[in-house]
Each structure stands twice: as structure tokens, then as C-alpha cells.
Design goal:
Elements (H helix, E strand, L loop, with lengths): L2 H5 L3 H21 L9 H24 L2 E3 L3 E5 L2 E3 L5 E6 L6 E2 L4 E5 L2 H61 L7 H61 L2 E3 L4 E4 L8 E2 L6 E4 L3 E8 L11 E6 L2 E13 L25 E8 L16 E7 L3
Antiparallel strand pairs: 1-15, 2-11, 2-15, 3-10, 4-6, 4-9, 5-8, 6-7, 8-10, 11-14, 12-13, 12-15, 13-14
Length: 376
């Protein structure tokens, strides 16, 4: 072999080597099978996710179909408006906004001067009426004693008449030779005088009896005036008591609008008392009420306290939709009828005292979301 051949190999050999080498590198790319998306890891993840979502959805549906909830709900409670019952100037105010008060607490004092004067006047009139009653009763006693006297005079007159009549009859039975015209006339005159005395005594008895009746009527009239005076006295006492405004129930003061020195009149609002008893009014769609009945358990979430759950139960379902009892009910006979799913108020009461925790007080108007466990 020459030196040139050893240094430079033949091109054909080099070319064939290079060609074979090139085929060796590209052959795996053309001969390897292509992998589809179905067999890829992404597809497996997608299928697994669908399975998880399907199972989760089925579990959630199985759980959720036993519950009905709505966010159209709020806390409701009594709001007692406090107004004066008499007109007067405010003397003292013992409460402030949001203060907790108890039944029997003194809230406001009104100036009692005018009503104390009126009470004193009524007491004086009552005493005068009582005196008139006693005077009328004394008149009855006097009239009754007059009746007794008149009756005694009647008895005496009747006795005299009886004697005079008997004397006249005996005289008439005497022999005509023993009688005289003068004596007979005298006996007749005595008998007639006795009869007149009897008639006069009887009239006096009747007169005195009428005096007793009149005295009794005077007593009745006087007692009526006394009762009227007592009623006026009681009314004055009541009005005087109205000058002290007392809390009728436990609760918190809200909407305070009264200060010392202000002149107040009946029905003028001074403040409200909100008792601690509250409940939930939830406006459920009519399509949610198919299986809802009183007594079912309710879980209540309150927007103000999202980290707490309250428990209660359905107390009642209103007998009519909210729109039916609105100020202007819907009129569907106008020809513009559009069917709208109606809502019915459902009253839900709390288990136990919902306002037992002073740090988480519930007030009327607060938004809630009740979840009712329905039966199927």
C-alpha cells in the first residue's frame, strides 16, 4: 500500500461509511410507532378528574337534596314603641341608646305638678260627695222618725174616732125621752171631727213615707256623685302614675329621641325597646316547600357571625305568599300576566336563648341563611 492510500482512504469507502452512518441515525425516528393522546398521562389525569368530579357531584347531590336553603331571610323580633300617655315636660331620662333594661325599671320621669294638683282637687270633690251621702242618709233617718210619729198620731186619731163613733151609736139607742137634739148634734160633730183627724193622720203618714222615699233617692244620687268623684280621683291617680314611664319588658333601648326639658304629648315616640326574643323569617320559593313541615331541624348561618352556626326548627309556614299580603298586591287580571315563582315566609325559632351570648347579639333585620333538613 502506498503512503497516499494509507493517508487518504478511498472516497467510495468513506462515502459508503458516511451513508451507512446517516441511515443508522435516522432509522429509529422513522421506524418508532407514534403514541396517541388516549395513552398519554394527560388523558389519564383528565379521566381521573372526571371520575372524582362525578363521584363528588353524586355525593353532594345525595347530601344536598335533603336540604333547602335561602339567603332571602332575616332576623325578626318585637320592637315596642314607648310613648307618653300624658302631656308634660320631661323631668329626667334614665336610659341611653342601646342600654339593656329590665321589666320594672324606671325609664323616664315627667313633671307631675299639674297632675298632682288635679289629684288633690279630685280628692276634695270626693270628700264633698261622701259628705253629701252621709247627709242624705241622715235625711232618711229623720224621715223614718217622722213616719213613726205620724203613725202614732194616726193610731190616736183612729182610737178617738172609734170612741166617738161608739158614743154616737149608744146615744142613738137611748130612749127618745132621754135624748136631746143638742146632745145628739154634739156627738155627731165629735164623731165627724174624729173621722177628719183620722184622715188627716193618714195623709201625714203618706206624706212622711214619701219623704223617706225622697231621702232614699237623695242617698242614691249622692252615692252616684261619690262614685263619680272616686272615679275622677282614680283617673287623676292614674295620670299621675303615667308621669313615671316604666319598662314593661326586658330589652335594649333603641332609636332614642327624648331629652330632659322636652315637652312630650301622647303618641309621640320617645324610644323603642327591643326584647331579647328573636326568630327568623325566611322567604322560601314555593318550589322548595314540597317536603317542608313544622318541626324540621334548621342550621342558621348569620352574616354578622360567619364563624358560628345556630340551630333551630321550623315553627310555621305562612298561609299566603308575601306578594298576597303586600301593600299593593299583584293584579294578574290586567292581561300582562307573567308567571313568577312566589315566596312564602317561613317562621324559624331558635333552640334555646339566641341572645344568651352578650358578645354575639342578634337584632331584628340582620341577614341570615337558614338550611332546613327536609324529609322525603
Amino acid at each position: 500500500m502506498s503512503e497516499t492510500e494509507s493517508i487518504n482512504p478511498p472516497k467510495s469507502a468513506a462515502g459508503s461509511k458516511g451513508t451507512n452512518g446517516s441511515h443508522a441515525k435516522t432509522a429509529p425516528e422513522s421506524d418508532a410507532p407514534k403514541r396517541s393522546f388516549v395513552h398519554s398521562p394527560a388523558f389519564r389525569i383528565f379521566v381521573l378528574a372526571l371520575i372524582v368530579l362525578g363521584v363528588g357531584g353524586a355525593i353532594y347531590w345525595s347530601y344536598a337534596r335533603h336540604f333547602e336553603e335561602t339567603d332571602d331571610a332575616y332576623i325578626e323580633g318585637a320592637v315596642i314603641a314607648i310613648s307618653p300617655q300624658v302631656s308634660a315636660r320631661v323631668a329626667k331620662v334614665y336610659v341611653s341608646d342601646n342600654q339593656l333594661v329590665h321589666a320594672g325599671d324606671l325609664l323616664v320621669e315627667l313633671d307631675p305638678t299639674d297632675y298632682q294638683v288635679a289629684l288633690d282637687q279630685m280628692k276634695g270633690a270626693e270628700a264633698a260627695a261622701a259628705g253629701m251621702v252621709e247627709q242624705a242618709k241622715a235625711g232618711i233617718v229623720t224621715a223614718q222618725s217622722t213616719i213613726a210619729q205620724a203613725q202614732a198620731e194616726l193610731d190616736s186619731a183612729q182610737t178617738n174616732y172609734t170612741n166617738a163613733d161608739q158614743d154616737l151609736k149608744r146615744y142613738k139607742q137611748l130612749d127618745e125621752r132621754a135624748k136631746s137634739k143638742q146632745a145628739e148634734d154634739k156627738a155627731v160633730a165629735v164623731q165627724k171631727a174624729a173621722a177628719a183627724a183620722v184622715a188627716q193622720a193618714k195623709a201625714k203618714v203618706v206624706s212622711t213615707q214619701s219623704q223617706v222615699v225622697s231621702a232614699q233617692a237623695s242617698v242614691a244620687a249622692a252615692q252616684g256623685e261619690l262614685e263619680k268623684a272616686r272615679a275622677n280621683t282614680h283617673g287623676a291617680e292614674v295620670k299621675l302614675c303615667y308621669c313615671k314611664i316604666i319598662a314593661a319588658t326586658d330589652g335594649r333601648i333603641t332609636n332614642k329621641n327624648v331629652d330632659p326639658g322636652r315637652y312630650v304629648t301622647p303618641a309621640m315616640p320617645m324610644f323603642d325597646i327591643v326584647p331579647p326574643e328573636v326568630w327568623v323569617v325566611a322567604n322560601f320559593k314555593e318550589t322548595q316547600l314540597a317536603h317542608m313541615v313544622p318541626g324540621q331541624a334548621v342550621t342558621i348561618s348569620i352574616d354578622a357571625y360567619p364563624d358560628r352556626d345556630y340551630h333551630g326548627k321550623v315553627q310555621s309556614i305562612q298561609a299566603g305568599t308575601g306578594s298576597r299580603f303586600s301593600v299593593i298586591p299583584a293584579e294578574n287580571a290586567t292581561g300582562n300576566y307573567v308567571k313568577v315563582v312566589q315566596r312564602l315566609p317561613v317562621k324559624i325559632v331558635f333552640d334555646g336563648d339566641a341572645n344568651a351570648d352578650a358578645n354575639h347579639l342578634l337584632s331584628p333585620g340582620m341577614s341570615v341563611t337558614p338550611k332546613v333538613r327536609i324529609s322525603e
